[in-house]
Automatic annotation (TrEMBL):
Biological process, per Gene Ontology: negative regulation of DNA-templated transcription
ATP-cone domain boundaries: 46-136
Keywords tagged on the record: ATP-binding, DNA-binding, Nucleotide-binding, Repressor, Transcription, Transcription regulation
Protein name as catalogued: Unannotated protein
Region ranges (Disordered): 151-171
Molecular function per GO: ATP binding; DNA binding; zinc ion binding
Any matching Pfam family: Zn_ribbon_NrdR
Keyword Transcription regulation found: yes
Coiled-coil segments on the chain, per record: none
Length: 171
């Protein structure tokens, strides 16, 4: 790291602290040349690969915009949506990959949205999975009825994810 004061090409880390829920590291550095101290921040990047092949940084705000549309008119508060977006980001980061397909982001949204509100889930899934007919809706509703959500008192085998269960019932 170049010193911002004398432009010396090296610096020594004096202290490191995680900030912003551990996604950023703040480092206190000292220049061995001039002795000045300065701070840097390192951010773990998570890039999304879009269908076009372009990449862009992950944005919780984009997740919130999409989920807000699905939850419009539903009894869901903003705090729940923020927590959902945080869960989605944590889930994606836990994969250990620096670049993730946009398709995976949509899949990561489905399970927590279903737990939050099944009607909003159905709205989101209809756009995300490009429902083209009434049969698509009926099939998804049948899956919702066959696979209780984790907040349902009838939920079973919580170790399986919704997408694994969805694929099993669908096939």
């Amino acid at each position: 790291m170049n010193c911002p004061f004398c432009r010396f090409e090296d610096s020594r880390v004096v202290d490191s602290r995680p900030v912003e829920e551990g996604t950023t590291i703040r480092r206190r550095r000292e220049c061995p040349q001039c002795g000045q101290r300065f701070s840097t921040q390192e951010i773990a990047l998570l890039n999304i690969i879009k269908r076009s092949g372009a990449t862009e940084p992950f944005s919780r705000e984009k997740v919130l915009v999409g989920v807000r549309k699905a939850c419009q008119g539903r009894p869901v508060n903003e705090d729940d949506l923020v927590l959902l977006a945080q869960r989605v980001e944590e889930n994606l980061r836990s994969s250990g990959q620096a670049e993730i397909e946009a398709q995976e982001v949509g899949m990561a949204i489905l399970a927590p949205l279903r737990e939050l509100d099944e009607v909003a889930y159905l709205r989101y899934a209809s756009v995300y999975r490009n429902f083209a007919s009434l049969e698509d809706f009926e099939g998804e509703i049948a899956l919702l009825r066959a696979l209780p959500s984790s907040n349902s008192p009838v939920a079973t085998n919580s170790s399986n994810t919704d997408s694994q269960q969805y694929n099993r019932v669908k096939n």
